[in-house]
Amino acid sequence: MSQQVENLIKKDYAAGFHSAIESDTLPPGLNEEVVRFISAKKGEPEWLLEWRLKAFRAWQEMEEPTWAHVHYPEIDFQSVSYFSSPKSMADKPKSLDEVDPELIATYEKLGIPLHEQEMLAGVAVDAVFDSVSVVTTFRAKLEEAGVIFCPISEAVHRCPELVQKYLGSVVPQKDNYYAALNSAVFSDGSFVYIPKGVRCPMELSTYFRINEMNTGQFERTLIIADEGSHVSYLEGCTAPMRDENQLHAAVVELVALDGAQIKYSTVQNWYPGDSEGKGGIYNFVTKRGLCHANAKISWTQVETGSAITWKYPSCILKGDNSVGEFYSVALTNNCQQADTGTKMIHLGKNTRSTIIAKGISAGRSNSAYRGLVRMNPGAEGARNFTQCDSLLIGDRCGAHTFPYIESKNPSAVVEHEATTSKVSDDQMFLCQQRGLDAEKAISMIVNGFCREVFKELPMEFAVEAGKLLEVSLEGSVG
Amino acid sequence: MLSVKGLHAKVEDNDILKGLDIEIKPGEVHAIMGPNGSGKSTLGNILSGRPGYEATAGSITFKGQDLLEMDTEERAREGLFLAFQYPVEIPGVSNMEFLKASVDAKRKHAGLEPLSSVEFMKLARETSKRVDLEANFLKRGVNEGFSGGEKKRNEIMQMMLLEPALCILDETDSGLDIDALQVVADGVNSMRDGKRSFIVVTHYQRLLDYIVPDYVHVLAGGKIVKSGDKSLALELEAKGYGWLEGEVA
Question: Rounded to two decimals, what is the model's pTM?
């Protein structure tokens, strides 16, 4: 790091960040000094600081997008604190007894094992704790296979050439407003590299690094699957985060080199706000994957949380014969709003994509599917199949579908099917006549509606997703 | 088992039942016949607590309890079963999952542990054989893509699994060919054990050749205008309902 930068940081400490040094939390506000501070805190190399600054400058010139079908008061980006180091072990609850009982009750409903509950609630874990050794075992096994799986801040030092080569290669800094913001201030996230021809020996999950996950609302994930390799990655904790109304702007980049396969599954259950729409996460996430020849990227997501979801996991099918898939369940209840979908950009010959999107709206919520299928001139013989189904529960919610289809190659085939249905009174009556209560009936009908997507999830996740829907739908029947 | 007194009921502001009385003892099979629009289906819907059907006067006692005070699912758990005339589809929910949930709900109500998946699977397979449905029906979505006959047999299978105290068959014979009718009737007859009661709502006397009732009631104009034994059904078959019109007030 240059002397100049160091001086600058020192100067800033004296000027604005005095309190920050003690608490390791920056006061609210965003400017170039904040970006430099974050970079310095992480001991980043010069190139990465420059990369962040470039993003920050671009962000300043950009405008917040307003095209999504969501409504919220203007976000004051200057009122957000952009760096808060993880709380020290001393500040954390010592045991589950000190954790909010309502939170524990929710975990129990979800059937999350006790030791995971402790992790999720941020209970300080020490060396005695089971999962620590578990994590170590996994790490050894992964290293044996040559797989790199670590926080991105660590990867910057461990394999700088990979990070430098691929960071921003799929989602450039200027891609969109939130991606630019993330690029400037990202706190941490996961980094995965699977070497050539390696089939990752286990499913990678953020569960294993749950402690590191507390680092922030601006995660950056980068997954590189080298030629012919396979990896399945599970993201997100399935428990509610009791966060305040706050901004979460993550970026996920996937690179599948020739013949590689990446399966990325998400169960997102950030805090959705209360039944009156107070609080909850604003989830503005950019996720995109790049497929080289014969590669395949499959996104599966179950979105039940957040006050606002703005998210379009996408595939750029650059290589010939590459395959993109998107399976999604988005459930909104109470006052939640979701505008989610995907983009399938077909560049290569004989590329194929499948989109199955299921939207469920209950309460006063609004859910929108927004999807783009683009067949570029070179996409000879490309095919897409899209099916989006909406299910309404009650009569105060809304479901919207915004499909965009651009075909510039006459040999490409695009199919789109859409349906909207309601949970019918007859279905409810059948269930109740067979002894099921209304909530069980709704959750069963909704689970059935989502079956096509759930079957794409890894088994354990599918079970959790089903339970999660049940919890999320609570109170949706009057 | 069931005692209905002076029941008046309406559906969307239309008065359908106008003072219906019926008394059913354990083990009895009662057939309810009557012309279209006489309120036959309304009776089953009122008894099972279908939303939109409202009892405006009279009383219904089921196993000594005030039925009208009970929720739909509570009535079901207490042993009241309605075999639907038009069973609806629930796409994506497997028959097995649905059946297990209902059986578990009923067992829980009775203070019993839920059956293990293995126990239930075995029971469900045996039961599906009794109604001549192949075991793969259990894996398919509830009524999803079932033929009319398969749907009705599925209803009977549910009835067998739930072992209700009172079974109401709402025109279960409509749309059934003779073979399916035989299967359904055999299923019902196998469940007659001297304790379980049945209300068989039907248009035609044909079904009653297979399920022989203890009593036959004619419902017309919202009340029971004539009651008798099995021979009444034959008489109706021969003479139609016209001769009873005079009995309708």
Answer: 0.79
